[in-house]
Amino acid sequence: MASRALHHTSKKLAASSYSLASRAVLSLLCAVSLYLCFSLFRKDAVAPPSLAYSAVPEKINGNCNYSSGRWIYDPTVRSPPRYDHTCKEIFKGWNCIAGNKSNAVEILRWQWKPHGCDLPPFDPWRFLEKFRDTSIGFVGDSLNRNMFVSLFCALKKVSGEVKKWRPAGADRGFTFLKYNLTIAYHRTNLLARYGRWSGGTSGILESLGYRDGYRIDVDIPDGTWAEAPHFHDILIFNTGHWWWAPSKFNPVTSPMLFFEKGVPVTPPLAPDAGLDMVLQHMVSFVEKNARKNAILFFRTQSPRHFEGGDWDQGGSCPRQQPIAPEEAEHLFSIENNGTNVETRLVNEHLYRALKGSKFQILDITRMSEFRADAHPSTAGGKRHDDCMHWCLPGLTDTWNDLLIAHLRNIRGRH
């Protein structure tokens, strides 16, 4: 009898303890939920109110327009990062963590959120598997190298069996041996072949008063990438920054002089008209020489963020957060004709030249115009602030997210 009573009492105590434990767990879950809700509320509250363009379509041809959206601050993101400052391929001037840039880590906590959809996170393992036996070529100036390095470092972190080589005239390249995936960077400033010119045999330019300058052959691709269309399955092109570079191509002392079929184009053209000719010829060249079923991209212009003057006039980029749309308009509006006006001017030429072509446009301009905080600035190790290139890791990681999302959509359609 006593034994049964003791057993009954024990069962009551156990049930009571279980009830107390359940209530404790429930209370804890409620507390955590409230904390997360308030955390999310605070996170949205401290972020700039609206980092987005208006009147931009949310969908293009039925697909999400990943280029239209806003930057959202998330203190929990990139832990661990897709790669870090120890990746040896990062050019010293772009390594903002090693260069002790004050907001180098904060740069990674801003995440791009397209309107009406999500930009899928980068999965390096899946990328390597999906693009087995594939060759990817980045063709363009140092901003395309910025993008190339971002992709390489992300893949290198998960797959260390890499062979270093330079396919088809590339400046640098790597093959991930286990997957037979090659990525390469072909350096070219103008896409077309160019070099110093100091007079010729025809005398046409001399008769117009030209004694020195740069010869640009609008119909001949630069030798660094001429073989790339035969080699790569995916190509990403860019050009732009060098076309508005008076420090390099001074219109008086070292002007751009354009040649077509070996003959000077007369009267001599302004750089923007020369750009149109080069784009026309180079787009045609790539389309004729690309591999069957090759995927062709042309990346839009990467914005600079010099404030208070150009790079050689004391210009700087001291921002610690992304800028608002109104500030972006002030910096980049063609009507303002400011220091950074080249961004949208170049894009006007690109869109005209690519209309009706086989190229896909990789629009990184809108999302990048907000990121005045993401340049190396004084941490670039130069005599002037670097407000042109981007910190790595950093913004160009998102460019590659955009590229991969487009590749997924293209392959999905086929």
Automatic annotation (TrEMBL):
<dbReference type="InterPro" id="IPR029962">
    <property type="entry name" value="TBL"/>
</dbReference>
<keyword id="KW-0812">Transmembrane</keyword>
<feature type="domain" description="Trichome birefringence-like C-terminal">
    <location>
        <begin position="119"/>
        <end position="405"/>
    </location>
</feature>
<dbReference type="InterPro" id="IPR026057">
    <property type="entry name" value="TBL_C"/>
</dbReference>
<feature type="domain" description="Trichome birefringence-like N-terminal">
    <location>
        <begin position="63"/>
        <end position="118"/>
    </location>
</feature>
<dbReference type="GO" id="GO:0016413">
    <property type="term" value="F:O-acetyltransferase activity"/>
</dbReference>
<protein>
    <submittedName>
        <fullName>TRICHOME BIREFRINGENCE-LIKE 13</fullName>
    </submittedName>
</protein>
<keyword id="KW-0472">Membrane</keyword>
<dbReference type="InterPro" id="IPR025846">
    <property type="entry name" value="TBL_N"/>
</dbReference>
<keyword id="KW-1133">Transmembrane helix</keyword>
<dbReference type="Pfam" id="PF14416">
    <property type="entry name" value="PMR5N"/>
</dbReference>
<dbReference type="GO" id="GO:0005794">
    <property type="term" value="C:Golgi apparatus"/>
</dbReference>
<comment type="similarity">
    <text>Belongs to the PC-esterase family. TBL subfamily.</text>
</comment>
<dbReference type="Pfam" id="PF13839">
    <property type="entry name" value="PC-Esterase"/>
</dbReference>
<dbReference type="GO" id="GO:0016020">
    <property type="term" value="C:membrane"/>
</dbReference>
<keyword id="KW-0735">Signal-anchor</keyword>
<feature type="transmembrane region" description="Helical">
    <location>
        <begin position="20"/>
        <end position="41"/>
    </location>
</feature>
